[in-house]
Design a protein that fits this description.
7-stranded parallel beta sheet; homodimer; 15 helices; 16 strands; Aldehyde Dehydrogenase, Chain A, domain 2; globular; Aldehyde Dehydrogenase, Chain A, domain 1; alpha/beta; 4-stranded parallel beta sheet
Chain lengths: ~425, ~425
Amino acid sequence: MDIAAYMQEVGRNARNASRQIAIADSGQKNSALLAMADALDNAREMLIAANRKDLKNGEEKGLDAALLDRLSVTDAGIDKMIEGLKQVAGLADPVGEISDLKYRPTGIQVGMMRVPLGVIGIIYESRPNVTVEAASLCLKSGNAAVLRGGSEAIHSNQAIAACVKQGLKDAGLDEAAVQIIETTDREAVGQMITMPEYVDVIVPRGGKGLIERISRDARVPVIKHLDGICHVYIDDDADADKALRVAVNAKTQRYGTCNTMETLLIAESRAAELLPALAKAYQDKGVELRGCEKTAAIITDVIAATEDDWQTEYLAPILSIKVVEDMQAAIVHINTYSSQHTESIITENYTKSREFLRAVDSSSVMVNASTRFADGFEYGLGAEIGISTDKLHARGPVGLNGLTSQKYIVLGDGHIRE
Amino acid sequence: MDIAAYMQEVGRNARNASRQIAIADSGQKNSALLAMADALDNAREMLIAANRKDLKNGEEKGLDAALLDRLSVTDAGIDKMIEGLKQVAGLADPVGEISDLKYRPTGIQVGMMRVPLGVIGIIYESRPNVTVEAASLCLKSGNAAVLRGGSEAIHSNQAIAACVKQGLKDAGLDEAAVQIIETTDREAVGQMITMPEYVDVIVPRGGKGLIERISRDARVPVIKHLDGICHVYIDDDADADKALRVAVNAKTQRYGTCNTMETLLIAESRAAELLPALAKAYQDKGVELRGCEKTAAIITDVIAATEDDWQTEYLAPILSIKVVEDMQAAIVHINTYSSQHTESIITENYTKSREFLRAVDSSSVMVNASTRFADGFEYGLGAEIGISTDKLHARGPVGLNGLTSQKYIVLGDGHIRE
């Protein structure tokens, strides 16, 4: 197979389809989403059989249990995909929304219209349900999608893709609006991220290694976050109950998510009072604690934290703890070590809450709330395709609006510039 | 001079200053802008003397009259810089603006806060007034600026920079918030566009060659437009007076601007009626006409247009004209040849106006208005640092908001995720 020629063809088809999808009306896009749901429902056996091939290959290749679990497609998993499609169909269509249409002194009216980005390339790893999620969000936001899943999920992804295409066809839309790369050759990714004439933005979903590699080599803009080194800072003026509740939830509600707290900062004035109860709560849940010297002077069973700990996303039941002099020291620590994902202050102090919100340079900044809330569903976006820690374009959880842009519109009545 | 080491130092200083400027209050930023205006007013002789050196060097190097004109700093030019600074001081501060703060079912409040991008690198050519414009817009939007002007304007830019620094100092702000690159070595640009750790976005202002080079080599996001191949389409249902007025204004009000029309499209049904009057108006103003075969069959003194004409930004009194079958053909032509800057339809038809607005994929799309309106001042942005034809981040005229991003803020009362 000539990978370059194949990818050029995929790109051309995607660009053509994107023009149709961009102006498809909301009803037609919703029909396609619901038809995809029907197609998945009718293809359960086929989907599970295809997935069985992937699982068998994966076992033979010696994939670990966690990877095999993420790869697996079950009846319950198909239910979730179907439910997700119906939810996206129920969301408001962002495309064509006109805002801020105002008369100017010259008599023209100037406003903004929300428009699709064009063609979105999604590169992801083992979870086949991403195929449905990504396809549905791109379609609803009026974009064509080029999907490149992991090689270990190729049969599952192709089976899901057949249902997606059936849905597009049933709704009278161009089937090329969602294309799955048919080859597992790595060169296909290299091509996809370097054809700005056909692909407008890349969304990588996967481990840090994948995302770093793509960001480095891409000639197309990338919407990404590398990692989530999130902080909770317990201020001098924190309410003790809220501090305990939030700090425990932020670490222990789930360990493997990017919005999980990795470093707890605590004001020196409250450390002796609060750290023992916090340590007990963490240790009861089996969380390993690594702390600065001042932390170790207050609680037992704490490993000495090194410089590395402040810059590590554990994604595991491990927490680093640092006692800081005051909020300023906390902000300096955060702006130095944070991955600009999510940080939260626990305080009852009005002035400090305002200052923390303003001075912390992260994509989500919170007061008295768990970092675990940093999520498209929790924020009311209806869905998310990922979380961006970049400042350009989308920032924080990226929902349908993050997959669109805006153009200016000008309405006149024969107006000319004098 | 070790350029790499110098640029690293500039970058580090900019990054440090950006943290101070990001949280500086509006009053302090406005004081700095007004103090810059005072400093320029007090330094007129010094500015004109420095500019004289650049003009003398330019003459010796044989720069042409147009370039020397753009390079020149006069008393009236200084008045304009001062006026510009006062205008920017008068604009609302975008930084810290909180929008869409809404309660979610969980009880948390989620909203967005507008924040600076960080450090903005501006690369521009001969006009020294850009130094003041760029510095003022970056400062007001809470960003540090690294400015790299053309080598031919180095003395003028340094003299202006001294006034800018005086203003920052008078207001108690870090003078490194605006830095002018002190060397004319080209390597400095190469460094500046490849240090994402210190520079968050590059705004190139200049010819297409400069912008293409920077876009190709940058490892930092670039806000740019390459060129302005703008279209006016006169529809079957156009009002004849509006068509003449707008089509003449869009081409002839100024020839060298990016929002000037370069190609006129006209519906076949109206060509015989309208083209003769249009041709006369253009030819009276000395505009050279290049047309398709159908155009040449209707009007005289028209050169045969080639494929090249449809993709050329003349920036000169030259216009290409194409007779098209209908609006669909016009949209296809535009989406093929346009640089996605600005397009306008002249029509009285409600349905077609809606369809044109939706289907044309450009950063500004107009109905019955001259493309010349595509401008930050005309759109009410108060000022603009450039026009972006990209879809990610800012699109169309880029004002203060385009130099900012948004972060999510979450306000809770000890809320945790269940």
